[in-house]
Design goal:
heterodimer, A: 167 residues, alpha/beta, seven-stranded mixed beta sheet, 6 helices, B: 416 residues, Aconitase, domain 3, Aconitase, Domain 2, 3 domains, five-stranded parallel beta sheet, 13 helices, 29% helix, globular, binds iron/sulfur cluster
């Protein structure tokens, strides 16, 4: 089961991981896992479980280019992020790290703390009250990158960037 | 068919005509990385991509600006790793502590040029639009791939046009007294909101009268409305623009926002979202503890000079600390030569090393709980400059100087 974590709109990368907790500021880079939402939602890092879903409002991940923001979410095992609109650098970073991001507004359909089942293959969320929520299928070039496990494995496998036809 | 500036630049870089909406692989002209993300970028280049060499050491720039000089033993150690790597790679455009913030430095050095595709490990890499380049910020993995291969991919953006207008027919537009490029940018952010140009580019028209660094104010704030790039057409400044790069009549814009400079007043962005903007005159009386003049948005020579005109012969209000952190060594030198710096220091300002300073809350004047700061930077997110219980207001250098004198957020005309 996955737990739903509801967030508001315009969640910025300083809220996800403040710049003062950047890996270059830490003694041990693995400590990054302690800092996702450290100030914005202090209970998150300690209680999030692998496979949990972030369901946010508009413009998730706006702000800086710091890849350690989605990396921290990956380190604690966030299974998917759903928001009506993602800030573009965050979206690319999450894609590159292989974190599934779905463009949809589910903040009114799900409750904070709700237990759901996330089925990434079929793009489905099954709720504890028996509802099936379909996630919009991402464009083909994004699915290619996820399938490879991120942009680096994609590039190593194919020797090209997504969307570019094979030579 | 007519193209936007982004379509022109990305078409050349893709080697075929491209239009908004399509995904294209493009050749990059320059890759910038800074001290904060370079250690992770280098690790990805070496360990994950298995690349011993960057694609072209002449076209990868490395700048130590985010924590410059180093604040802790860890940052010092990591910066040394970056220095050694840059040396091994033969990176020609390596700029160390004190040279300044990557964005103004690469423009001053002539490395960033009109028509280029420039990707940087910093979200404010939209800055290079000040000379008519397509500058875009990316994270470590994308930058590592670009540095290793000389290529990247983009979804070619739609373009949002922001046009400065006014009644000064036939003569260049100008701002009212005490108003500057920052106010134009914040006014546009107020209109577009934080997501108004997400996945799009912004073109800034009607601003031929601005200097390169004033244009950088517009270009850096473009990311705060979500933009992929923020480009000012390269006319009216001393750069060699390629012939194919010019505003074409009939280019299609997804949205047009006009800002009337005849009525534009000083703007202030209140905590803790950049688009939380109002006219200064509607703000009420906001006392401040710290005034911070700096960053790639408004730490330029022009900003220091504007502040010095207001502070000349006067002194910062009791109980207010004023920090000045020049955006670059060139800006600092120029301010030294013409007395601007002496004026600021005599007025009570404290001077920091050119670089990012406290913009990301790591050193050189971070804020404590409960403090209020008037900041000339580009982000007022909670916790951005230190304590999450500090309040950050964004405004121009002119407003910063007036605020330093009065102790509350003040209109420059109150002073002059
Ligand atoms: S001054 Fe601030 S916004 Fe500009 S590059 Fe440095 S950290 Fe980024």
């Amino acid at each position: 089961m996955s737990r739903v974590w509801i967030f508001g709109q315009d969640i910025n990368t300083d809220q996800i991981v403040p710049g003062r907790f950047a890996p270059i500021m830490l003694k041990n880079e693995d400590d990054l896992r302690k800092y996702p939402f450290v100030e914005h939602r202090p209970d998150f890092a300690g209680t999030v479980r692998p496979g949990d879903i972030i369901v946010a409002g508009n413009n998730f991940g706006c702000g800086s280019s710091r890849e350690y923001a989605p990396l921290a979410l990956k380190m604690v095992g966030v299974g998917a992020i759903v928001a009506p609109l993602f800030a573009r650098i965050f979206f690319r970073n999450a894609l590159n790290l292989g974190i599934p991001c779905f463009t949809a507004d589910l903040t009114a359909q799900l409750r904070d703390g709700q237990e759901v089942e996330l089925n990434l293959e079929d793009g489905l969320i099954l709720t504890d009250d028996g509802r099936r929520i379909e996630l919009p299928p991402p464009p083909v070039f994004l699915r290619e990158v996820w399938a490879a496990g991120g942009i680096v494995p994609f590039y190593r496998q194919h020797g090209r960037f997504p969307g570019e036809s094979a030579q | 068919m007519a193209q936007t500036l982004s379509e022109q630049i990305l078409s050349r870089a893709a080697g075929r005509p491209v239009r908004a909406g399509e995904v294209a692989t493009v050749a990059v002209d320059l890759v910038m990385m800074h001290d904060s993300l370079s250690p992770s970028i280098i690790r990805i280049i070496e360990d994950e991509l298995g690349a011993g060499q960057v694609w072209d050491p002449e076209r990868v720039a490395v700048v130590i600006d985010h924590v410059a000089p180093a604040a802790t033993v860890q940052t010092a150690e990591k910066q040394n790793e970056v220095r050694r790597w840059a040396q091994r790679q033969g990176i020609r455009h390596f700029y160390d502590v004190g040279r300044g913030i990557s964005h103004p430095v690469l423009v001053e050095e002539g490395v960033a040029q009109p028509g280029m595709v420039i990707v940087g490990s910093d979200s404010h890499s939209t800055a290079y639009g000040c000379v008519g380049a397509f500058g875009s910020g990316m994270g470590s993995t994308d930058i590592a791939l670009a540095a290793a291969t000389g290529r990247t991919w983009f979804r070619v953006p739609e373009t949002v046009l922001v046009r400065a207008v006014g009644t000064h027919k036939g003569v260049p537009l100008r701002f009212r007294p005490g108003v500057s490029a920052k106010d134009l940018a914040l006014r546009a952010a107020r209109e577009l909101r934080a997501d108004g140009a997400t996945y799009a580019a912004v073109e800034w028209h009607g601003v031929e009268f601005l200097t390169v660094m004033e244009r950088m104010t517009l270009a850096t704030l473009s990311i705060e409305v979500g933009a992929k790039a923020g480009i000012v057409p390269p006319v009216g400044i001393d750069v060699q623009a390629p012939e194919w790069l010019r505003v074409e009549e009939g280019a299609s814009y997804s949205r047009i926002v006009e800002v009337d400079l005849d009525t534009l007043e000083p703007q202030v962005s209140a905590p803790s979202f950049v688009d939380n903007v109002s006219d200064l005159s509607d703000l009420g009386r906001v006392p401040v503890d710290v005034v911070y003049l700096g960053t790639c948005t408004n730490g330029h020579y022009e900003d220091m000079a504007a502040a010095a005109r207001i502070l000349k012969g006067k002194h910062v209000a009791p109980g207010v600390r004023m920090m000045v952190v020049p955006a670059s060594r060139d800006a600092l030198l120029r301010a030294t030569e013409d007395g601007t710096l002496a004026t600021l220091i005599a007025a009570g300002a404290a001077l920091g090393t050119p670089g990012c300073g406290a913009c990301i809350g790591r050193h050189m004047g971070v804020l404590g709980p409960g403090e209020t700061c008037l900041f000339t930077g580009n982000r007022n997110f909670r916790g951005r400059m230190g304590s999450p219980e500090a309040n950050i207001y964004l405004a121009s250098a002119e407003v910063a100087a007036a605020t330093a004198l009065t102790g509350y957020i003040a209109h420059p005309q109150e002073i002059l």
